[in-house]
User: Which sequence fits this backbone?
């Protein structure tokens, strides 16, 4: 083969080969390079994470001075207050001293800074409301007129006069149903129920003349009304013309013991948390160790926490001179470790008064009672002329409003 024939033969052979697309080749090469880079990064991250895990295990198992120790407490909320100690194995906090209430941080509610009888309450028929924030009574010529505060801070009064009961005004702290629409008032020989969304009123007759306490079941269609030695369960249907179904309930000498869905009762050594089980009465859930001398007010349930106020037996943790400490007890229906106590003790005078051995500020027995829950972790309670809120997660106590009324019932509309 002559040299000059070689180029001709090479050209003829290349004509039969596909012509490459240089752009496609460059693109494929770039993708391949990126895939290699991505695999390298992922491999590096995996190696780094494995190194961290191995390092932690080595420190934990090695037990050296740099060994990792997991935290033994959960992170606390901002402004949290540590417990002051324990009473009967339950963490307790001390409430702010008497006289300091007006200086506490405030919870904003429809109740405002001062809760008093309004001058401009309209007729409930003309001013129906969806949810009640609070109920108070106005005394008029020996009887009482109910006044309702809505969740948007408007007042209305019902064209209904209530007779006094054995304890005075016929207002129970459990008067307002969970739906915020129905309100019940104990009366001699019966109970009045008012629907604030329609202004409908129903008078329900009962055998006992001495009725004092009202507590609604969670469905807002049944209520328990009780007095000393008597208690009844009532099916409430304001739209029915028939007399409601009335059933007997296990009784107690303390009218305010009968509450649903839970009740706290019994004295030291016999304290019990019970759940209402309809026809089966109250079923015992637990026996918290509480130094109870006597209970005050009703029991209120918020989610899994059940709370009531008691006057305590003498407490070595809370020394007093002229009185006994009163305690807000919040007891869990599920987990005893969640139990909490808030102690309302004496406030010694800054400068002792000559000739006096007792503190200038004491809280008289019965001055304090639970009024319900603001939310599932915040209990509302009355201390003389103040409505206060205790947050169980942070331990903080804040003021809700000053009270210029003799009694008040709180409803779900308090959250606005």
Assistant:
């Amino acid at each position: 083969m002559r040299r000059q024939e070689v180029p001709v033969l090479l050209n003829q052979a290349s004509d039969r080969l596909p012509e490459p697309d240089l752009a496609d080749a460059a693109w494929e090469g770039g993708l391949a390079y990126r895939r290699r880079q991505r695999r390298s990064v992922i491999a590096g991250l995996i190696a780094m994470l494995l190194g961290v895990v191995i390092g932690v295990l080595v420190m934990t198992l090695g037990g050296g001075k740099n060994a990792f120790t997991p935290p033994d407490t959960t992170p606390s909320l901002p402004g949290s207050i540590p417990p002051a100690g324990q009473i009967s194995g339950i963490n307790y906090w001390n409430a702010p001293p008497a006289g300091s209430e007006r200086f506490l941080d405030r919870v904003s509610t429809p109740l405002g800074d001062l809760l008093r009888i309004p001058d401009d309450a309209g007729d409930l028929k003309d001013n129906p409301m969806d949810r009640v924030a609070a109920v108070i009574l106005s005394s008029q010529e020996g009887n009482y007129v109910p006044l309702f505060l809505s969740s948007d801070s408007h007042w209305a009064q019902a064209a209904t006069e209530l007779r006094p009961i054995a304890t005075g005004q016929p207002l129970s702290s459990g008067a307002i149903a969970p739906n915020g629409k129905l309100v019940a008032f104990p009366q001699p020989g019966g109970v009045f129920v008012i629907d604030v969304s329609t202004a409908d009123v129903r008078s329900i007759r009962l055998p006992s003349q001495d009725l004092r306490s009202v507590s609604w079941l969670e469905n807002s269609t049944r209520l328990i009304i009780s007095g000393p030695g008597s208690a009844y369960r009532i099916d409430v249907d304001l739209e029915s013309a028939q007399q409601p179904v009335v059933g007997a309930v296990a009784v107690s000498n303390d009218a305010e013991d009968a509450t649903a869905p839970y009740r706290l009762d019994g004295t030291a050594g016999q304290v019990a948390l019970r759940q209402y089980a309809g026809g089966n009465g109250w079923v015992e859930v637990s026996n918290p160790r509480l130094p109870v001398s006597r209970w005050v007010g009703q029991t209120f349930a918020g989610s899994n926490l059940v709370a009531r106020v008691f006057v305590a037996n003498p407490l070595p943790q809370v020394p007093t001179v002229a009185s006994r400490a009163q305690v807000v007890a919040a007891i869990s229906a599920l987990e005893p470790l969640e139990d909490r106590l808030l102690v309302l003790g004496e406030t010694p005078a800054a400068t002792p008064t000559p000739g006096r051995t007792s503190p200038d500020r004491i809280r008289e027995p019965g001055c304090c009672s639970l009024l319900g829950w603001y939310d599932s972790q915040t209990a509302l309670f009355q201390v003389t002329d103040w409505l206060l809120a205790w947050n169980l997660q942070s331990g903080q106590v804040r003021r809700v409003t000053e009270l210029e009324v003799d009694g008040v019932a709180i409803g779900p509309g308090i959250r606005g």
Q: What stands out?
A: The radius of gyration is 35 Å. The chain is about 10% helix and 35% strand. The chain has a mean pLDDT of 83.
